[in-house]
Write a structure and sequence with these properties.
Blueprint: E1 12-15, H1 17-23, H2 31-40, E2 45-47, H3 55-60, H4 65-85, H5 95-99, H6 105-118, E3 120-124, E4 136-139, E5 146-147, E6 166-167, H7 173-181, E7 186-188, H8 199-208, E8 214-220, E9 225-228, H9 259-268, E10 274-280, E11 296-301, H10 307-316, E12 382-391, E13 395-404, E14 410-420, E15 433-441, E16 446-454, E17 460-461, E18 467-468, E19 473-478, E20 481-486
Parallel strand pairs: 1-2, 4-7, 4-8, 6-9, 8-10, 10-11
Antiparallel strand pairs: 3-11, 5-9, 12-13, 13-16, 14-15, 14-19, 17-18, 19-20
Helix pairs in contact: 6-10, 7-10
Length: 487
Amino acid sequence: LREELKFNGVVILDYDMSGIMKNVMGISSSYHELGKKLLLANVDMEACEPLCYNYDFISCLKDDDYYLSLIDKSVYRILKAKFELGLFENPSFELEEIKNKVGTEEALHLTYIEEKEGATLLKNDGTLPLKNNSKILLIGPNANLAQLGGITYYAALEDYKYKDASSEKAITPLQALVSRFGEKNVKFIKGCNFFQNNEEEEKEIIKEANWADVIVFAGGNNSIGYSGGENGGKNNPMMKLDAVTSSEGYDNDDIGLTPSQRRLFDLIKGLNKKVVFLVYGGKPVSLEKELPFISSLLMCYGVGARGNLAIADILLGKINPSGRLPFSIARNVGQLPCFYNHYLPKGNYNNPGSLSKPGQDYVFNSSSPLFGFGFGLSYSNFVYDNFIVNYDEENIKVSVSISNDGPFDGDHVVLVYGRCLEKEYVCILSKRLIGFKRIHLKNKEKKTVEFNFTKEDFSYIGIDMKKTNPKGKIEIEIGSNKKELFL
């Protein structure tokens, strides 16, 4: 880190890692010995309680010039960082100044913009966008929660699992849909939370489905969902945060829906209604079994305070979705790990099987993900043509024309993949993202997008574990267009 990568900054140990390394990992029998190992590893500070770097530790090393010199170097780096931050001139902050910057309308609007550009349409049979007078039956555990993420105020409370989390600035899917479609056109019946079903509400859902034009299922994961509006959800047992399924330290052995959500989905899939499924959460959720019964599927991620307003605008058609998946979604847990930029494996990788025709990899299933990295649909049809590559020994210029065939205006994110096809002693990658640009195209508009690359953009880690520039063939891919070059 210091010598090869030339990092001169401060290295801070992860939160409470000293205790974990000693008591869980068994790296050292004492904090004194662990502290010496941390110094040798160039760790400058502990996070949380100083279990190693305390006054007793310093006194134990008072006659060891080598370790004292390491301490001096760490102290220098820490003081240098404090000087650069201006902490010696102004060590505190003005609370009122913070209040004027945090949680402002401008800041909250950023969560709307993030969701507007990030929400990813994964399936659409034409159900979306909805008409502004569509009758919507909203169900699911996230229907009246705004997912703000696990590291929030309530995460710092010892008994936060048993508290209602509410924020007057957080907008839930229910509030967002009502604001866009009108109160008379939206009915809300939760049906289940993240681990329990409600049989009475299930009966209500069956009854009200006859009234609805579409069922919107707000499901997925729960980090810490906030009920919207002042005191929203207080004293409602179905609003209790009784199952955090996605946050720091929360792992799952199943990448599908929670059992309660599966039961609720099985209930509605037989009602002969269009189903729009909204997936909330920061990690992939596999819906392979549910997908044939879903009309439209939207990956919402963690929406923040105002993101659900953007989700409602996408459903209404005021926003044309343009997000791309930042990860691959596996078909099931047996496909993990599942990522796009893997090394090319054995020759049978492209010989998948099925229940009707067994293959080799996998015998009874596809080796491709349910949805791959970079996938994302739109309400418009974007067409690529005029793919041109000009290059010399050092520089590569790529251009492509993109047309919006309509019927909506919209953003489009252009992805460029590149890889080296000839490596010495190293397996080549399936593909690698090397560039992207977001453009806006009106209906029937056409634009040309340009990218500039160098050899280093196609570099790889060689057998000596160092970055190596390509010599030989490389490949560039945009959309369904591919070109090979020889450098």
